[in-house]
Amino acid sequence: MIENLVEITCDQLLGEISKAKLEGYRFVTASCADNGDDTIDIIYHFDKDYGMRNYKVNVKKGEEVPSISKIIFSALLVENEMKELFGLNITGIVVDYGGHMLLSEEELGSPFLRQQITIEQRGGKKE
């Protein structure tokens, strides 16, 4: 269980992040969890005087999520990472690496998603 967790929607995301910044909270990072169904949880972690505040957004796979990087520039790194590793559809990242910040063309897309990967998708041959 995460303490100080505030559940919000994608529509509330930018407003809540702006508010946290104005209140003096510092962006720490964001994390993702594939729920094993058609949804992913994104949790944005903030700190102020060693007191954490966490914002959780539950999104459907493929749903657009606005980037917070226009408010907090450093978020571009973790947003690119989440976009690449979880296949999140994060829009408006100030510097978007297009899915190749960590993975090369030869590597599997969205490797952290819970999904069935066939032998052919891994580049092997079916026997």
TrEMBL record:
Annotated NADH:ubiquinone oxidoreductase 30kDa subunit domain residues: 23-92
Pfam families registered for this protein in UniProt: Complex1_30kDa
InterPro entries on file: NADH_quin_OxRdtase_su_C/D-like (IPR037232), NADH_UbQ_OxRdtase_30kDa_su (IPR001268), NiFe-hyd_3_EchD (IPR012179)
GO molecular function: NADH dehydrogenase (ubiquinone) activity
Top-level taxon of the source organism: Bacteria
Gene3D superfamilies linked to this entry: NADH:ubiquinone oxidoreductase, 30kDa subunit
Protein's recorded name: Respiratory-chain NADH dehydrogenase, 30 Kd subunit
